[in-house]
Structures are given as structure tokens and as C-alpha cells.
Write a structure and sequence with these properties.
2 copies of one chain form a homodimer.
Chain A: H1 5-20, H2 25-36, E1 41-42, H3 43-50, H4 54-66, E2 71-75, E3 78-84, H5 89-117, H6 123-150, H7 154-163, H8 167-180
Antiparallel strand pairs in A: 1-3, 2-3
Helix pairs in contact in A: 1-2, 2-4, 3-4, 5-6
The first copy, chain A, binds a DNA duplex (30 and 30 nucleotides) through α4 and β3.
Chain lengths: ~190, ~190
DNA sequence: TACACTTTTCAGTAATTCTTGAAAATTCAA
DNA sequence: TTGAATTTTCAAGAATTACTGAAAAGTGTA
């Protein structure tokens, strides 16, 4: 398979972008290709299209599988595995976010929690703990909020996003209601 | 300066995390140190604390400056520069998000826009454009929403986040109001 | 301007990460 | 069970990125 210039540009861009993240060029390019491909591709097709060795592609696909970003299927009378990216881009986005959380956020939160459990005496450490608590609270707040919001129906999520900062008006409304109801409200 | 075990753990963790992102270990460690430090530090203090060469620290600090993540100040009678991380962790978070957007999201959006301007004929390219449009729209929606939300007062932002998915109730309320008002509503 | 101090640059080396071909392992049909 | 097709592993080389010391450049004071 030969890439069209349009697809080539797209694929190369994600190769570059990949290296800015921890992801390597091969993996970025493979996923970009799967993302735009009309049909699932097998490893040989990918290797040929991108000019990577078969083994490199194999490793790249394994990496993508570990991120749960690919789907595998078979064709009748063909033993090779055919790979594709999910149809729904929101699903891709969600998976990416979840995996990053697992790999980066969760370990950081554990480290911070352990650090905050220690009772320390020096002024250096006391200050450090204060800073770590601020970080811990921010990360916990944003990730749990993100997890919450991600559970919403995409349709509702889109209308929330389109509302943008005007959501604030509704918050004010909520606060008024809370006031009227005598200070009762969400406990979180 | 000698790091306490508490701070050492924190610093090493962000060194590791840094390498998972595009950021290198040195830069991660330097910023972690500045973040928990009680007082601004000069380059020599940082180099000694982390065991890096002076020149490596200089490069790391330049990198952090390019991300607008550090503050520089001077002490009377001392010509050296003293570096610190902003007090407000929300400000740090915001800056980080803005810079990442500039460096990663904006170039991707331009690439996608250009790709979508082209008129293509083949079925491959038509499908690729459809996928690129989906990606473009998702990125545009999420980033403009994020930018919007970031303009909110931290206090309001926190209460939005604490509300979590229950924000949906308020959206439903909004939809009802829209309905009553005869379909009028936010235009975005 | 001269000088002491500080920061930056940069070429070379070290370390890490990527990529490959070949061999091993796996899978499935006969 | 055999054997062809396919995938995975892995050691070694290639490429990239990180790090250093030394030299250059910059800065402020006398």
C-alpha cells in the first residue's frame, strides 16, 4: 500500500508529536495510519506503508494494545491479524485518558499519599508536605472530576462543553437554590 | 544543601515521570525541587542538591523558563539569580496547560485544518478527511472549553469540579428553560 | 576600562532509546 | 504430529538524547 500525500502528512505529524510525548515515532505513525485507514490493516501492510521492519511494527502494535487503543479482527481464510482504531473518537479519547491516569497520575497520587502520611519535624519537610498536599488535592480534584464527567453521555458532554464558562451562571443559580434550601447541598 | 529523604523521594519521582513525558529527568527533578523548596534557589545550590553539573542545571532552567514555569529573583548584595516555582499551584497548572496547547495542540489543529481544506477525490482520502474532521472537532471543542473554564475564578472552578457529573442536572434544567423560552439559548 | 563573578554555549562523550534481522515461539490446518 | 504461516523475542548496531567540562560571553562594580 502506498500512502496518499494527505495521509502521509497526517501520519508524519503524529510521528513527530509522538516523540514529544513519551510515545515513540513508530507507535505514533502506526496509530495515525490505523486511525485514518478505511479498512483494518495487517502488520505487513503497516510495515510496508510506513517503511518499518516487521518486528518494529509488531512491537508498536503490542504497545498500542497495552494502551487498549486497537481492535483486532480476522478475515475468513486468512490467519493474519487485522488491526484498527475504534470508530468512535470519544472512545479513543476516553481510553487514552484512562490509561494515562493509570500510568502517570495514580502512581503520583500514591507517592504523595505516602509522603503525607509521614510525620516530619524539620521546617524544610513541613513546608514540602504543605506543597505536596496542595498538589495532591489538585490532582485528586481534577482527576475525580474528569472521571465523573467522562461518565456522562457524549451528547450531554458536548452540550456542557459548548456551554463553556457560562456554566458559571448555572452554578450561581445552584448556590441560590442551596441558600433557599437552608444550606443543604452536595456533600462532596 | 542536602535533600531530606522526603524531598528526595518526591524529586526522584518527578525525574522518572518527566522521562515518560517528553521532559527530561534533569528538568523534572529541578522543577520538583523548586516546587517544594522553602526559599528560592540559585543554580549552584540546585546543581549540588541534585548532583548535576552546573551547565546541565543551566540548560534545565532555560527549558523551564521557556515553559514560563519559574520565577527569578535577586538577593541584595548577591549577583546570582534565585529561582522558584509560583506559589499558586493553580497558576502552575494553568501555565502548563497553556504551553502544552501552544506546542502540541495548536500545530495539530493547523495541520488538520490544512488537510481539511484540500479537495480530494479518492475513497481513501475521503475517508481520511472524515476521520480528520472528527479529530479536529473534538480537539477544538475540548480545548476551547478548557480555555473557557480556565478563565473562571479558581473558587468557582473548584465548586464546578466538586459538583462533578451532577452538573448534568443543571444542564437539563437549562434545556427546559430554553424550551420555555422558545428555543433561544447560547449560540456557541 | 579592568576585573571578579556568573551564566551560557558547545563539542565531545556517555547513556538511553530505537530499529532491525535472525531465530524462536506460536498457531492452525491437514 | 507435521509443517507452513505468522507473530514474538532478542542481541546487536544505529540513532537520538542527555550530560559534562572547558571556554566564551555576559554583567555589574570599582
Amino acid at each position: 500500500m502506498n500512502l496518499t500525500p494527505l495521509i502521509q502528512t497526517f501520519v508524519l505529524h503524529f510521528g513527530e508529536m509522538g516523540s514529544r510525548w513519551g510515545i515513540n515515532r513508530t507507535v505514533g505513525q502506526i496509530y495515525a495510519l490505523l486511525y485514518v485507514a478505511r479498512e483494518p490493516l495487517n502488520a505487513d501492510e503497516i510495515a510496508e506503508a510506513l517503511g518499518f521492519s516487521r518486528s518494529n511494527v509488531s512491537m508498536g502494535l503490542k504497545e498500542l494494545e497495552s494502551w487498549r487503543l486497537t481492535r483486532v479482527q480476522h478475515k475468513p481464510g486468512d490467519r493474519r491479524e487485522y488491526f484498527s482504531a475504534p470508530e468512535d473518537i470519544w472512545a479513543i479519547f476516553r481510553t487514552l485518558a484512562e490509561e494515562r491516569r493509570k500510568r502517570e497520575v495514580d502512581p503520583t497520587l500514591s507517592m504523595l499519599r505516602e509522603a503525607l502520611m509521614q510525620s516530619v519535624s524539620g521546617a524544610e519537610d513541613q513546608h514540602a508536605q504543605k506543597r505536596m498536599r496542595e498538589m495532591h488535592d489538585l490532582i485528586e480534584l481534577t482527576t475525580s472530576w474528569f472521571a465523573d464527567v467522562q461518565k456522562m453521555e457524549p451528547k450531554n458532554l458536548v452540550s456542557l462543553m459548548k456551554l463553556g464558562a457560562r456554566v458559571q451562571k448555572f452554578l450561581e443559580m445552584k448556590d441560590k437554590l442551596k441558600l433557599v434550601a437552608g444550606g443543604k447541598g452536595p456533600s462532596a
